[in-house]
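STRUCTURE REQUEST FORM
Protein name: UbiD family decarboxylase
Source organism: Pseudonocardia bannensis
Requested output: structure tokens
Priority: standard
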Amino acid sequence: MTAGASDLRTWLDLLDGRGELARLKHPIDPDQDVAAVLERADGRRAVRFDDVAGAEFPLVGNTVVSREQLGLALGCGPHEVADRFAAALDAPRPCRQVDRDAAPVLANRLTGERLLSALPLTRQHEHDGGMYLTSALLAVRDPASGTMNLSINRLLAAGERELRALLLPGRLRRIFTEAEAAGRDLDVALVVGVHPTLVLASQSPADRELDDLEVASALAAEPLDLVAAPTVDALVPAGAEFVLEGRFRAGRREAEGPFGEYPRTYGPGGPAPVIDLIDAWHRGDAVFQTILSGGREHFYAGGLPREAMCLRALRRAGLDVAGLRLPESGSCRLAAVVALRNPAPGAATTAMLTLFLTAATIKQVTVVDDDVDVLDDEQIGWAVATRVQADRDLLVVPGAKGSSLDPSATGALTAKLGVDATVPADDREKYRQMRVSPADPERVRAHLAELGL
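Status: completed
Returned output:
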């Protein structure tokens, strides 16, 4: 399996050919109606909206709704996506810089008084603070290394040329804080409408030497084409649908939020840094992109890179990992399942503590043997039901660092739970799974084919 070309429209064509892209031609209200449709289609298909009320461009959402699609985007099977991302982190690939004339994203300049109101921004949830841009990759050059950092931040529109950005702890906030302390505005390019590999790369570890664009390039089938933004100091994907150029204004804060977040509860509002937009560019026949907060696309965007980081950490701890998943039930952030091959005594506890330290958002870890498929919730539940005794196999870590967006946490402090659902090494026969093993599997396959099974 090979990854496709690294732009959004090629990806949408692929989904369309697989019957996984729906198209709504009737006008739709961006105030929660778009989100309602995406929520209903979540896990099933992407949706393109041809006529969003008040906007000049069509809109697409739910561009990745399954682990099978993640594998398709990365050129691997669904069980191999974390390994594929980890390999890109270990070996980023240089990009190709092209001239402006060869960059489709700079083909058209958005002129006139309208800018943000011309775009199909949406209000997704009933208590959100306004119309939000949820899919933009904020491309910022890190002065510490000269490399490009990508991130996705919730962005509240305020007028035609102002965005208010929530900056959670991470690389972008450090870069902005340093610029602000020096009294400097910070250049930023907002990239909208990209291949899933770029969305994933935007969630790479906060390593100031890492170039997130080179991670995306390593994930793609070919080196990623970049172009210098015309006004601000940033490199952007030449095949993106839109680029908005702007600057974070040092010392300025405005009200932002609340907003529905990945735990499917609201993140609080507060004073937020401000981006003033300077210019905007787009491809011919451009399609804007949204990410449904609390949907699978949102889960996978942040979850898969965390899986890769966890996988690397577990292997550095000397564990033989057969599989790892941050399940959708925990928003691909709050829980983890890891399968180990022939775990020695203490291996399950080592895995739990390693994951708690590697990803602070993880508050529950279940460890299973490699006879359990980590992508199958029923198998995981079976392992817990048949291999766990509560007085023997649970680990509780109180008062640990967690996620500030977890509504059950106190601030960012949470209790963490480890569940050892592995088989005791000295009693494996007692726990052996029963199997059906026909003498002639081919004959059985023929029977099933005749039955349409």
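Reviewer notes: The CA atoms of residues 74 and 84 lie 7 Å apart. The two ends are 25 Å apart (CA to CA).
Form closed.
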